[in-house]
């Protein structure tokens, strides 16, 4: 589907199919079109082209309030004058459910979101995290076909974010509701999702499991956006069995499995994670230690390879490891399966 605002295209020919019960995340930086896509699914916004289906049913003409979606949006406030219980019951009352059924469902929801002790309180008597749990309970209690969440944790402090993240995932698993979650926080996306769509400027760059988008990036953008990557410029020398051989700074050679080479051409960028760099005597690559930063659990080395190329190497800090003097030569390699080669079109 596509969404244009005037002559600006906010969502550009995006096609997604989300499985029943799946936790699906739209991940991308600010302005890439995540909220626009979610608002189209919710029915608050009409797409310029394409259509939305829930199962077999096209719902393009179904108004938002009849789509049976549960919504947890960034600024979707709870009613300040209603108690926690009344807030959660609101959607059920609006649907005209019997009193006994409403009480049963609300009680279950209070239990699941651990809000039972706060049932009679007003929102202003709750912490930010507790309020957000009320929003979540209110969205889920109606037993929606789809649960839509747009940056539901962004107003909370770091500790509460991580805590509530776990609760959202547990709740979603427990009730099995199909969920579309929007975030620009990659760690949140990786830890919550069954699958992630990585978006960039209105387009989807890659769709896959957290493991796939992290370990098998299909584009250079994804390799740089999800987690941290080193980019080592290299020239393609030729194929050798199931591998492609590259020459990099200082005439050193690196072989990459053909399945991890993402295109053709002469000039490439070899992408790999700092934690995949292994220091070893007489390894394939070498450089001068430019800097070392100790952070308790890990040690990060900056390594200069010459020609202005600097790499980052991250290792666990082990007791008794010798400290390496700045300027010393480090020999290292990277497991071939941890390298992805992208054609280098840039300068
Ligand atoms: N009603 C509108 N009229 C014109 N342009 C809009 C409108 N709504 C959104 N846009 C533009 O469409 C693009 C995508 O907006 P969207 O809100 O979907 O981004 P987002 O990915 O949710 O970003 P963020 O992470 O900052 O919330 C932005 O460039 C935005 O300025
Ligand atoms: Mg948004």
Short description:
The chain has helices at residues 34-42, 84-94, 99-112, 128-140, 158-175, 186-192, 210-215, 220-225; strands spanning 3-5, 8-11, 23-27, 53-54, 57-58, 69-72, 146-150, 178-183, 195-200, 203-208, 230-240, 243-248, 252-257, 267-272, 278-279, 285-294, 298-306, 309-316, 329-333, 340-343.
Textual characterization of the structure:
- By secondary structure, this protein is an alpha+beta fold.
- The protein folds into two domains: 218 residues, Rossmann fold; 115 residues, Beta Barrel (OB fold (Dihydrolipoamide Acetyltransferase, E2P)).
- Helices cover 24% and strands 32% of the residues.
- The protein is built from eight helices and 20 strands.
- The strands form five sheets. It has a six-stranded mixed beta sheet with strand order 6-7-8-3-9-10, with helices on both faces. The protein has a five-stranded antiparallel beta sheet with strand order 13-12-11-14-20. A five-stranded antiparallel beta sheet has the order 15-19-16-17-18, with no helix packed on it.
- Helix 2 runs parallel beside helix 4.
- The chain is elongated.
- The model has no long low-confidence stretch (mean pLDDT 93).
- It binds adenosine-5'-triphosphate and magnesium ion.
- Adenosine-5'-triphosphate binds next to strand 2 and helix 1.
